[in-house]
Amino acid sequence: MAGAKRKKVTIVDVAAKAGVSKTTISRYLNGKFEYMSEESRQRIADVIEELGYRPNSLARSLKSKQSFVLGVIVSDITSPFSPILLKGISDCCDRYGYRILIANSDDEPRKERDYIMNMIDQSVDGIILNTTGGNDEFLRETADMGMKFVLADRTIDLDLFDTVHSADRDAIGQMMRYLKGVGYESVGFFTQPLTNSTRINRCQIFREVYGSYFDGMAQVYFLEKKQRDANVMQEFMRRNIDTKHAIFTGNGVATMRVVQTMRDLGIRFPQETGLCGFDDWEWMNLVGGGLTTIALPTYDVGKECVKRMMHLLNYSRAGEPRRVELPCTLQIRHST
After folding, report:
1. Which residues form the HTH cro/C1-type domain (predicted)?
2. Where are the beta strands (DSSP E) in 105-148?
3. Under 8 Å CB-to-CB from 76, ≥6 apart: which residues?
4. Cis peptide leading into 270, omega within 30 of 0?
5. Cβ-contact 249, 260 below 8 angstroms
6. Alpha carbons 287 and 335: distance in angstroms, whole number
7. Which neighbouring-strand residues pair with 151?
8. pLDDT tens string 84-122
9. DSSP 8-state class, residue 226
10. Sign of the four-CA dihedral 109, 112, 118, 122
11. In sequence order, what are the residues at sequence separation of 6 or more whose Cβ sits closer than 8 angstroms to the Cβ of residue 178?
12. CATH classification of 66-166+299-327, choosing from 3.40.440.10, 3.40.50.2300, 3.90.1300.10, 3.40.190.150?
């Protein structure tokens, strides 16, 4: 009948549809996957999505003394990286019946500390952190008090926490082999100042592998003040005037600044220099026939962070912190 109230889906409905017991569904929702095959896990996940089942968070909280809320702190909410990461986290949390509390640190260690303490006050079960990198000892102390952390994309100097990030070494090697294979003779790496672990790691890998593909010293150019970007670009062009050369950017923001500077100086790609870089944001397929990029598994990084957190919350900790590297994809387009 029109206007009839839809019957609320229960855990019993999910169990019946998936062909498993109510206990199995409960164990799935709490991240307890021992003795559960991957096929069963996927079937349960599909049924939960199909039926639109949402666990009763209040009832679960009262029973288990957990809030079923995860804190998520990103370093820059304005970066296209962040909403993709957050969607992966949110979608995976939905499957486990968790909600998320989101904060933006603006890459400021003080804000990061304040948000962590605020989330602890709100009784989150754990925190997924895209860290500023300036709070290593604070994170150690907070973890010693019992808070669970999983690091997304960025690492810290102390090997304390599970970390999920892209397989940057493999990706850089793949890009360098490609550039060498299509005839480039020199490559310059353009990056913002090395103020976080991702930038540091990519720059270090570039320096380490450069000599395996090209002659001469690895060239690194820093994009600091925007008003000096043109000077940096002109230095690169002068230094490589006698070779077929390419620019390799460290992330999508660096790519945007390089494209803007090339436009301002009237430098064409790929005619005058090749252009490629990390991040495959939507606009990059629309510029000058498309930019060659390394597509990062950002959505999957978010999902894997949640899975690691579920493991921490529901199993006794054994062994060393785990580092998960997810593969990237080379997208070849007109710019090279």
Report:
1. 5-32
2. 126-129
3. 82, 104, 106, 107
4. yes
5. no
6. 9
7. 129, 163
8. 999 999 999 998 889 999 999 999 999 999 999 999 998
9. G
10. negative
11. 292, 330, 332, 336
12. 3.40.50.2300
Tell me the per-residue pLDDT of 176-214, one tens digit each, with 9 for 90 and over: 999 999 999 999 999 999 999 999 999 999 999 999 999
- Cβ neighbors of 161 (< 8 A, separation 6 or more) are 139, 143, 149, 150, 151, 321
Decide which of 3.30.420.10, 1.10.260.40, 2.60.40.1080, 1.20.120.1810 is the CATH code for 11-56: 1.10.260.40
Strands, E assignment, the chain? 69-74, 99-104, 126-129, 149-152, 162-166, 186-191, 219-222, 245-249, 274-278, 292-295, 323-326, 329-331
Whole-angstrom Cα distance, residue 52 to residue 256?
40
Q: Residues near 65 by Cβ (< 8 Å), separated by ≥ 6? A: none
Q: Which two tokens stand for residue 177?
A: 């082999």
Structure tokens at 83: 């909403």
Which residues are CB-contacts of 204 (< 8 A; sequence separation ≥ 6)?
none
